[in-house]
Structures are given as C-alpha cells and as structure tokens.
Amino acid sequence: MLIEARQQAIYEVLRRRGSARTTELSDELGISQMTIRRDLNALARRGLVRRLHGGAALTGPPNALTSTGAGAVAELPRKMAIAREAFAFLVPDQVLYLDGSTTCRELAKLLPNDLGLRVVTDSLDTVLELHARAGVEVTLLGGVLQRKDRVGNTFAGSLALENAAKIGVDLCFSSACAFAEDHIGNPDMAGVEVRRSMLRNARRRFLLADSTKYGKRGYIELCTWREVDVLVTDEGLTAQRLEGVAAQDVEILIAALGVSAPQTP
After folding, report:
1. How distant, in Å, are the alpha carbons of 31, 170, 171, 261 from that of 229?
2. Rounded-to-integer distance, Cα 48 and Cα 14, Å
3. Which part of the chain is CATH 3.40.50.1360?
4. pTM of the predicted model, to two decimals?
5. Buried-state track 26-38, b at ≥16 Cβ within 10 A, e below 16
6. What single string gives the DSSP state of each residue in the chain?
7. Nearest to 11 by CA among 49, 54, 51, 67
8. Domain 3-58 -> CATH class
9. Within its chain, how far is the Cα of 91 from the centroid?
10. Distance from C-alpha of 208 to C-alpha of 86, rounded to nearest angstrom
11. Per-residue pLDDT for the chain (265 aa), expressed as one digit of tens each?
C-alpha cells in the first residue's frame, strides 16, 4: 500500500472511532505495528491526530484532513503527489498565490519556515494551515467568506477582487474541477474572478489538477491554456495523452505517486 493511501486508511479509522490503539489499527488494516507508529507520528506532525500512549486520537473536526468533501479525500494521494512536484519550483523570497483547492492546501503543508516565502490567498483553510508557520508571511485577500465545502471556505466579493488586482506574485498555483485540451473549468463562479486576476498578475502560472479531472467539463471556464505555463498532474495520465495540451506551449509535469514528501522545518 502506498504511503499516502496507508495514512489515509489509518485516518479514516480514527475519523470513525475518534481514537484507536496501535494494535487495533494493525489488526484491522493488516499493517505492522512499527509502520502504524511511523504513520501516526507523521499524521501527528501534520496536526491531524494526537498521539496517545499505545495509540492516537483524532484532533479537530471529523473532516480535518480535507474540507472539500468525500471526493477530495478519495483522491488525496494524487493531490499530495502533485503538491510535492509543485514544491520543487519554490526558491527563497518568492511571493506565491494559493487558491482554495485541496491540492493547494497540500502544497501549503509543505512550505518551510526558512525560505522567506510570502503567500497570498483567498482561502481560510490555507490561512489556518499556515498561521503557526512563523517563517511564512500570509496575506489574506479578504472579502465575504463563502461557507461551502466545494470551494474550500474561500473569500469572494468586491473587496477580494480589488485586493487581488493590486497584488503581483511570482508563482500562481490554481486548480480546476475539469480540464481537457480545449477547456479548463470550474463548477460555478465561486472564486473564479479572484483566480483569473491572480493568473493575470503572476510571473509564472501553474494549474494543479489530478488525472481524474481530465476529460470533464466545468460549467464555467476558468481560463484558457494561453494563461497557463505549467500543468502538474499525476501518473494517471501519460504525456502522450496530453499532447494536445503540450502543443499549446504548456509544460507538463507528471507527479509520481508514493514518493516521500519533503520535510517542513
């Protein structure tokens, strides 16, 4: 079992029960107790579980691992792999935009304290993820909070748009619910205008989209491939299948599943 899938399985048991002993998790999942302990420690470092003597308990609400619904949980290993691939582009003193997607939240979890990074976001989830990261400066665009699972608790409205129009970033990381060689889509207008503004104001623009989104169409067009420099997806798609996208002068990166995440200081 891949590392991400294994940790997801452990988390799901804790989500159902609230707490569990290492021996119980080992018996239920067929994983060695040593591996269970390592995975619990990794989940604890991410703030998702609290270690107890002989086991662990869930921290926070039952949906702490993701705020964007069951589909996001199911594809979490893909999103984590894409976030790791995107992480490789970070260098000291950059300004980043992260949208409210689960994939961008996974990238936020990887941001280190020692690069002097500044993050601009319209996502409450991203702010909460980074609030204790003293070495990362966070700017929230403001506006009206959209309390909907599918938009990841993002801010929208005229204030968010006005602020977004004034800010330039080095790297813009955005996601989409659907993409094909002729389409990049969103399920509705939630967050679209802010992301379009940040795409216009970025030196380099990344679309982070897992392979399950390929071939689907969103109700609203988010942007065109002319506004994307790099597509980061996962190994559920091959470069050959994405030739139509590559032909539009878009760099394509295929993230491998099951690779260890970089350590966050």
Report:
1. 41, 12, 10, 24
2. 10
3. 70-255
4. 0.72
5. beebebeeebbbe
6. --HHHHHHHHHHHHHHHSEEEHHHHHHHHT--HHHHHHHHHHHHHTTSEEEETTEEEE-SSTTTT-SS-HHHHHTHHHHHHHHHHHHTT--TT-EEEE-SSHHHHHHHHH--SSS--EEEESBHHHHHHHTT-TTSEEEE--SEEE--GGGTSEEESHHHHHHHHH--EEEEEEE-SEEETTEEEESSSTTHHHHHHHHHTEEEEEEE--GGGBT---SEE---GGG-SEEEEETTS-TTTTHHHHTTT-EEEEEPTTPPPPPP-
7. 49
8. mainly alpha
9. 19
10. 8
11. 567 778 878 888 887 788 899 999 999 899 999 999 999 998 888 777 889 889 998 775 444 444 444 444 557 889 999 999 999 999 999 999 999 998 999 999 999 999 999 999 999 989 988 988 889 999 999 998 876 544 458 888 899 999 999 999 999 999 999 999 999 998 877 788 999 999 999 999 999 999 999 998 888 899 999 999 999 999 999 889 999 999 999 999 999 886 555 555 5
Task: Classify burial at 166, counting beta carbons within 10 Å of its beta carbon; exposed 0-12, middle 13-18, buried 19 or more.
Answer: exposed
Assigned fold of 70-255 = Rossmann fold (3.40.50)
Q: Rounded CA gap, 213 and 157, in Å? A: 27
